[in-house]
Design goal:
The chain is an alpha/beta fold and about 350 residues long. The protein has a domain of about 220 residues: NAD(P)-binding Rossmann-like Domain (Rossmann fold). Helix content is about 40%, strand content about 20%. It is built from eleven helices and 14 strands. α5 runs parallel beside α6. The longest helix is centred in the first third of the chain and has 21 residues. It is globular and about 55 Å long. The structure holds uridine-5'-diphosphate-4-deoxy-4-fluoro-alpha-D-galactose. The site of uridine-5'-diphosphate-4-deoxy-4-fluoro-alpha-D-galactose has 20 residues, from α7 and β8.
Length: about 350
């Protein structure tokens, strides 16, 4: 079976993808600098998966760290494809430190592509985001909707897509899966890995999880006058294990079809902030207290995917519902109240 290099390997989405790849029979090499993740993830992967993680600690902008990964891959017949997760991802922070986002996200992608070329590897899965659609003109969002960035983080995802498309145009050996993630949430069913944000969580579900476990008093609901059924923002939450399986499907597509692919990874179902808080309350057996607060700048009313193309092209669709997302998040949060380092 093919060997896959994961960048940002100990991060939230990559660690779940690592397990999905092992389940599907792939060999995996991981690289991460731990800038936003913990080495304890490797112990947990060992424990859940019963395998020895093949790992290099390093930054993707460091060519020698990437070369070590490709060397490690030789024991498995050589790296065949790369899934490039490593990136900074906080919208607010990107407005404060745009140059860090360009350096890490664009510089990181460039360095990964250069290493791939050095080692004769041309299949890459790129972690893009629904953020490339900006404020959607119509819903659900299809892959040919107009693209625009509304902050530096979104701009790096858009620029990343454009850089890879240009690369494909210049050299037909390159094949890219552009995966546009909607809102990844939940955790592995074992409860041993999950999302472990540093500081105050920016995103809804990790914040709700910290309210549920008693670390925060209440959820601030950012806006209740949106053009949605209950006035609160609507998003397409997708279980991180479904998302992980989407990466396996994309790798198979690249290997079998020998062509590039752009797909939304979402469920197609939108839920409001209040829907999610209610579902989480049921999962943890305690109502989540909410306080209405002003709108958060830059937020849109509603954003959800048309996931039809992902199913038609790759035979993939999300299988897990909102209840699974909340139950699995709660299992992780309640047994690891302080995350990996706790
Ligand atoms: N929200 C709250 N309270 C909170 C946090 C969030 O009410 O404490 C609301 C937001 O206003 C929004 C919804 O919950 O209506 C979801 O917010 P998230 O921050 O969880 O997710 P976003 O949809 O804003 O952001 C996600 C990704 C970004 C990406 C963006 C657009 O986290 O990386 O989608 O694709 F840029």
């Amino acid at each position: 079976m093919a060997c896959i290099l994961l960048t940002g390997a100990t991060g939230y989405i990559a660690s779940h993808t690592w397990l999905a790849l092992k389940d599907a029979g792939y060999d995996v090499i991981g690289v991460d600098s731990y800038v936003n993740s913990s080495p304890i993830v490797l112990n947990r992967l060992r424990e859940i998966g019963g395998f020895e993680p093949q790992f290099v600690q390093g930054d993707v902008r460091d060519a020698s760290a990437l070369d070590r990964c490709f060397e490690l891959g030789k024991q498995f017949g050589g790296v065949r494809a790369v899934i490039h997760f490593a990136a900074l991802k906080a919208v607010g922070e990107s407005v404060e430190r745009p140059l860090d986002y360009f350096e890490n996200n664009i510089g990181g992608l460039l360095s990964v592509c250069q290493a791939m070329k050095r080692h004769g590897v041309y299949d890459v899965v790129f972690s893009s985001s629904a953020t490339v659609y900006g404020k959607p003109e119509s819903l659900p969002i299809t892959e040919n909707a107009p693209l625009r960035a509304t902050n530096p983080y979104g701009q790096t995802k858009l620029m990343g897509e454009e850089m890879l498309r240009e690369l494909e145009r210049c050299d037909a050996r390159w094949h890219v899966a552009y995966l546009r993630y909607f809102n990844p949430v939940g955790a592995h069913a074992s409860g041993r890995i999950g999302e472990d944000p540093r500081g105050v969580p920016n995103n809804l579900m990790p914040y709700v999880a910290q309210v549920a476990v008693g670390k925060r008093e209440h959820l601030n609901v950012f806006g209740n006058d949106y053009d949605t059924p209950d006035g609160t923002g609507v998003r397409d939450y997708i279980h991180v294990c479904d998302l992980a399986e989407g990466h396996v499907a994309a790798l198979r597509y690249l290997a079998d079809k020998g062509q590039s692919l752009t797909v939304n990874l979402g469920t197609g179902q939108g839920y409001s902030v209040l829907d999610l808080a209610r579902a989480y309350g049921q999962a943890c057996g305690r109502e989540i207290p909410v306080v209405f607060a002003p709108r958060r700048p830059g937020d849109v009313d509603a954003c959800y995917a048309d996931p039809t193309h992902a199913f038609n092209a790759m035979g993939w669709k999300a299988r897990r519902g909102l209840n699974d997302m909340c139950v699995d998040s709660w299992r992780w949060q309640s047994t690891n109240p302080n995350g990996f380092e706790g």
